[in-house]
Amino acid sequence: MTSYWVRQREYLLEISRALTAQLNLDAVLKKVLRAATEMLTGQSALIALRQPGGGFAIRAVYGLPVRLLGYFSELLADIPERAGHADFYIPGLANKLHQVAIETGLPLRQVVALPMSIGRELIGVLYVFRAHGGSFTPDDRRILASFADQAAIAVHNAQLYRRLAQEKHRLDAILEHSADGVMIMDPGQQITVFNRALSELTGWSAAEAIGRHHDEIIRWERLETGLDLAQAVAGGWPLAQDRQGKTPLYVEGDLRRRGGGTVSVGITYAPLLDREGRLVNIIANVRDITRFREADRLKSTFVSIVSHELKTPVATILGYAETLARSDAQWGPETAQELAETIKDEAKRLDRLITDLLDVSRLQAGALPLAMEEVALDMLARRVAQRFQPRTDRHEISIRFPKNFPLVKGDPMRLEQVLDNLVSNAIKYSPEGGKVRIRGRVRPEEVVVTVSDEGIGIPAVEQGRIFDAFYRVDDRSTRKTGGAGLGLYLARAIVEAHNGRIWVESEPGEGSSFSFALPRIDGTR
Ligand code: ADP
């Protein structure tokens, strides 16, 4: 005949197996409560768990109305900090229960408080309530103690698992939203994690990249540093260099993007080793360094353009001045006049460049100061045309503005600088000559001024960049003409400071039209 004892033990075993197989904390707590209540033939139960900040809080209940739980917190006072089973004792527990029974009107006569501990560490207390019944035998107590231990392990596991899952969730979120590209590879360089920033950089979605080999995704167009990952690994990285394998590998260069184009990146590969020193993962951090490269490029173009642009007129001025000053030659008044004119032109060109450079540095320091007043753009255009026409006999500069052209609010000197630049470019970049038209149009909310030429034109790919500082279209026809690539940059800055827009339409070989629009002060009428 199976004794009560054996049945109890089997029951206990079954419960603990079911418990330890479960990693969901809520489900574990529910099972523990139900089993404990059944074993003690009680009616209700609750579990209080130790809080991370200290103290205990009710975490799960069975057979108790939730709205009355507030009354039960009394029972959690005076729980000993650390305790084994034999000496576990909550002072005055029976009296407290009596009080709770009166306050809640629930039939609670008896309470058993079982410590849930891992070693001597108390992680929680299991309370089982009975409406009636005799006291527990020592056997009952032993079985319950053993059950409580199993429950403690299950709860502890579930807590650890939950913490781990939260931690992983947090790390995943950090990785996914990192501004740098991040990928994690297994020792065979198979990709296991691929974040959003890296998708944007490479053009590969995470779904497509995960499972592929590193070299399928990271394809260098050009390497700036010595070795790429494959070469470094062939050379023994990460283990050969230092015994701990702690040296990260840095590779920089231009990466081929999926679907075309390249992007400049710096990749830091960090090896992750286990305790035995075996490679577990390679973590790659990919940083977009296009901007640094661009800044670098800008700096060197700046130096080369500016020095060229400064040196050319200075050399001309020097040469002509020396010629004029020669004591062994006599110059007729006409030749002297010509030489002096050239010196004047070159000095003007220098002055223009220096002024432009000062404007650029003013712009970069903050803003261009504007002296605003009402400006008649048609008058201004006429003045510019009159100034430029005598300087060229290949070009015919024409003006067309409607009558009563609306006034705009602006800095007349700065707006003249814009027109000056556009007209001078129109002449400069139509070496064969042709018509240069300055045209004004009135729209409901703005006025538009367009300067068009019949010159060399601008390829579509360059049209977005010619407004950048120091940018010049690099082909033979432009290289012959001087310029620092600042005119359009300043023109755009001035127009935008007036709340306006500037743009270009052009067909290579056909000519270009530059337009700018400024808001009307009279508004829509
Ligand atoms: P710069 O004329 O000093 O080079 P800009 O900023 O005025 O500098 O112009 C930038 C570049 O845009 C020029 O180098 C030239 O390649 C191109 N560009 C400007 N205006 C014209 C035009 N009217 N026709 C063709 N190309 C032009």
Write structural notes for this entry:
The structure is a single chain. This protein is α+β, with helices and mostly antiparallel strands. The chain is 43% helix and 23% strand. It is built from 16 helices and 17 strands. The chain has helices at 4-20, 25-39, 69-72, 93-104, 138-177, 196-202, 206-209, 214-217, 229-234, 290-325, 333-365, 377-388, 412-428, 460-463, 476-480, 487-497, and strands at residues 44-50, 56-62, 110-118, 121-130, 181-185, 191-194, 220-223, 249-256, 262-273, 279-288, 373-375, 395-400, 408-410, 434-442, 446-452, 501-507, 511-519. The strands form four sheets. It has a six-stranded antiparallel β-sheet with strand order 6-5-10-9-8-7. The protein has a five-stranded mixed β-sheet with strand order 12-14-15-17-16. Strands 2-1-4-3 form a four-stranded antiparallel β-sheet, sandwiched between helices. Helix 10 (290-325) runs antiparallel to helix 11 (333-365), helix 12 crosses helix 13 (412-428) and helix 13 (412-428) packs antiparallel against helix 16. Adenosine-5'-diphosphate binds at residues 421, 425-426, 429, 453, 455-458, 466, 472-473, 478, 483-489, 512.
Q: What is the rounded Rg?
A: 42 Å
The biggest sheet amounts to: 6 strands, antiparallel
Q: Termini distance? A: 106 Å
Average per-residue pLDDT, rounded, comes to: 88
Uncertain parts? none
Strand content: 15-25%
* DSSP E strands, number: 17
- Percent range for helical residues? 40-55%
Overall morphology: elongated
* Bound ligand species: adenosine-5'-diphosphate
Q: Please report the number of helical segments.
A: 16
Strand order of the largest sheet: 6-5-10-9-8-7
The oligomeric state is: single chain
* Structural class label: alpha+beta
